[in-house]
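Homework help board

Subject: predicted structure for assignment chain

Our instructor gave us this sequence and asked us to write out the predicted structure in token form, then describe one feature. I got the tokens but I'm not sure how to describe them. Can anyone check?
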Amino acid sequence: MNLPSKIALVTGATRGIGLETVRQLARQRVHVILAGRDRERAVEAALNLQMDALPVEALQLDVTDGESIRAAVQEVERRHGKLDILVNNAGVFIDDFTKAPSEQSAETWRKTFDTNVFGLIDTTRAFLPLLRKSPAGRIVNVSSGLGSLALHSDPDSPIYDIKVPAYNVSKSAVNAWTVQLAHELRNTPIKVNAIHPGSVKTDMNAQGSIEVELGAKSSVQMALLGADGPNGSFTHLGEVLPW
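My token output:
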């Protein structure tokens, strides 16, 4: 029996883009750890994929809880001793569409940044020692085209009028973090990249225009990136996007 050679962990993976990312990676014979804030939902999702003979296991992980992150790292180290791929997919979108940028509540800003930025950074920092044990570690940060400062500043851009600030700015911060970490790790086998999944039809985005299968593709491409692939990039389906 040939066992998968790579171990991947996908956060926020009990539904939507995260769940589909797990499915697609597992179909590539990557052993995938399906991580979710709710343990029961993570186990249920993993069991459903296991029924299709996919190499998936469940893990409880709340990226806003330091103790949960530490416990998850310890569990992955105990089970596998390393991590080859980290897909930072967990995120929230809670802006009030009826309010202007200056009217969004402080609570909205804090909750958004706690998950989308601080949770992503804390999770990455905690798993970095295990990623360093991989011969070719990959970190994929799920960002958004809505985080592009260039597009938001261009009146001719299709996103020019989509000002949902807490979410948008959190994704700009994710892009900035990606650049900083990629620079730190530039002389290592680890590659760090941000991706835009597209406007995907999910529970979080009722106005999405593409199916989840296509939405997960960018994450999977960067997770399986070869040694000659980019480091510190922001792309959608291989196309470079403006910061």
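Reply (TA_rk): Your tokens look well-formed. For the description, you could write something like this. Residues 63 and 119 are 5 Å apart (CA to CA). That's the kind of observation they're looking for.
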